[in-house]
Amino acid sequence: MNSTLESRKQDRFWHSLIGIISKGGVVPIVGEDLLRLPSAQGEDTLYETLALRYSASYEMALDPAQKRNLSAVIRHHPDFQTNPHDVYCELKEEYDALNPAIPEPLRALARVRHFNLFVSTTFDDLLERALNEERFGGKKLTEVITYSPKNVPDDKQISAQLALGRPVVFQVFGNCSTPLQYALTEGDKVEYMHALQTAEYRPNRIFDELYTRPLLLLGNRFPDWLTRMFLRMIRKTPLDHTDVPKQYVADAKGTEDAFMRFFLLDFTKNTELVEDLDPVELIRELSTRWHERFGNQEVTPVAAAAAGTKPMPKNAVFISYCATDASGQPARDGQVALAIREALEARGIEVWLDKDQLQGGDEFERKIKRYIDTCSLFMPLISETTQSRDDGFFRKEWNWALSKLLDFTGSDRQFIFPVVIDDVNPYRAKVPEEFKRFQFTPVFGTAPDAQFLNRIQWLYEKIRPPRP
């Protein structure tokens, strides 16, 4: 009987967790305990490995527990008080020399494509590398936002990165690539937490996202005080309010520390403490269940709040699409446009599209005209949505592209590359007659196939100016 009840409890847990993840928006908060590396003892975390290597290189007289604690090792470094800059630089050199392989838990997380915004509470680049390897074949397309009280990320830049539709990693305690701008010791974490709670040093744009999203805290190994302050910091209202979004905590500390467990269970609402699985086991099971349900399905990232759009690189491919249908409801055209952009960028092709469909007056129109005038290829998406609209900003874009087309009169230069994304007869569609001079290329489903990508790559390489 108990076995049956336990099985039902687990089924309910996974049904709830996968259901929330499938809606998009869940933010994994990824910590030290996921950075598992092989060692003589079986496995150590990255931080334990660095601590052991560093303490051995300086022959520090520490007890066994301290030798595995990176904060303690750094605190006992002979130069820490007088020359901390060099200590932080040496730690980065130690990390580079170690050159750790990407841990499998991070790869498994990266494969769950409903996750698109991540918070890292460690100072390494392993999560970024995992996302690049699993989603982009190793190309560096993951957006990284690194926090430091000495260099607070600009809200406009954060908005632009969130708006790109790529995975985003927010490194809340900095990155070891910059000396003295990452949290290496317990003292550093105190200072970071203090700065993050002040209006002057808080990256508000990121917190606007975290306040409203479900959270999945995974293996952060925070002490009791830091867990409480961190959870409160990333919520807009007190933790015992019923309107706090759902959060799952999978952390050995949360189950081993009686006081922390008491706090999580009794003083927070909508918080589920995962006690039956450690963080790595949870991710392994989550990855398996997610792939059983969604493995071959296309996933569209949850849109961040509207943000400014980055300027278009010169000679980029300009994707023109219609975001809403005749009734004003969001159309799938935007999903297809993002999928095309992602696939092309993975091949090193510069692409621009207005993800937020901002239509802000004369200045905006002048900017779009300029972008169309300087793009290498204009790609209008023809769809049931464009069929339903007799007007729309996309029709202005089409008209401006036709004006640019006059520059190539009499040449064999292809400037317009019309793409059909629905079951629409393009030769009877509501498109300019000039579009019908070109072959309409279909994109079935959401993602473009290799033939489509090869054609665009060939045109792009042919059209753009030679590299210096």
Brief overview:
Helices cover 44% and strands 11% of the residues.
Structural features:
Rossmann fold, alpha/beta, 468 residues, 19 helices, 7-stranded parallel sheet, single chain, 5-stranded parallel sheet
Give the topology, please:
Elements: H1 2-22, E1 27-30, E2 36-39, E3 42-45, H2 46-57, H3 64-67, H4 70-75, H5 84-98, H6 104-111, E4 117-120, H7 126-136, E5 143-146, H8 155-162, E6 168-171, H9 186-196, H10 204-212, E7 215-218, H11 224-233, E8 247-250, H12 252-256, H13 258-266, E9 271-273, H14 279-294, E10 317-320, H15 333-345, E11 351-352, H16 361-374, E12 377-382, H17 384-388, H18 393-405, E13 419-420, E14 441-442, H19 450-463
Parallel strand pairs: 1-4, 1-7, 4-6, 5-6, 7-8, 8-9, 10-11, 10-12, 12-13, 13-14
Antiparallel strand pairs: 2-3
Helix pairs in contact: 6-7, 6-14, 16-18
Could you explain the architecture of this structure?
- The protein has helices at about 1-20, 45-55, 65, 70-75, 85-100, 105-110, 125-135, 155-160, 185-195, 205-210, 225-235, 250-255, 260-265, 280-295, 335-345, 360-375, 385-390, 395-405, 450-465, and strands at about 25-30, 35-40, 40-45, 115-120, 145, 170, 215-220, 245-250, 270-275, 315-320, 350, 375-380, 420, 440.
- By secondary structure, the protein is α/β, with parallel strands linked by helices.
- It folds into three domains: about 10-35 and about 100-295, Rossmann fold (3-Layer(aba) Sandwich); about 40-100, no CATH class; about 315-465, Rossmann fold.
- The protein is globular and about 80 Å long.
- The model has no long low-confidence stretch (mean pLDDT about 90).
